[in-house]
Amino acid sequence: MDSKKRHELESNDLREFLDNFKDFWDKNGNTILITLIVVVGGYTAWNFYKKNKIEKNESAVMALSEATNGAYLMSVAEEHPSVRHIAWQRAGDAYLEEARAAAVKGEDADVPKLLDSAAAAYQRVVDDEGFAAEFRINAMLGLATTSEMRGEWDKAKGFYDRAYDLAGDQFVRLAVLAETGRDGLDDLRHPIPFGPEIPDNPADFGTPADPNDLTGDGIPDLPGETPGGDPLFPNGPVLPDPLGGDDAEDPASGFDPLLVPGGGE
Predict the structure, then answer these.
(1) Domain map of the chain by residue range?
(2) pLDDT at 213 over 70
(3) Helix/strand/coil percent split, the chain, to 5
């Protein structure tokens, strides 16, 4: 009897719970479903965003590593805003190297355009105060170098001064670079002249060759000097052979073998 009564009580409790849950669901079911959908959807969207951001960053880093010239780096800056400050800085550096290479090759017509491109890339970094100071200082140093290559010494000094002031005590290495570049401007503006290189042949100086110079050494020959003289003293006169020969047998040569050590034995 007790077991039957207990079973009935449990059945009543279950029925009451189901009835109450039905009433609760009727009132709040839609809200709960919407909340679950929002939570699950938000979690999925967040994971997708994180994954997409990681992939974009990896793509940007890969593009930077593959860039080989200024134009390509400028396109990387436009396509990947997260690395545009690095891309602009490297684009300026690349354009400078291309300008130097063009100058070495004698392609002077291309140099001004490349320098303009370098300056434009550096200027973008300098103008955006949201970039880290270190990037802006490096860009100012690049603008100074660009001005040096153009021969604009006052502008170069101005960029060095700005870089030095911005570096301050925080970026000592960059401050030293700016100060060194500024101090070297006078040497670049007024280079030390060097004399012409000495040619191997003195006749290359533009003076006519001496007809008396039979040995071709640029020095007038001494009396009795011939191109076939003493190999130890090619510019000296031909001397009689102390060991014999035609001169030893010729009384007119004035050679006395008795005056040679061991010559009279």
Answers:
(1) 70-189, 203-238
(2) no
(3) 70, 0, 30
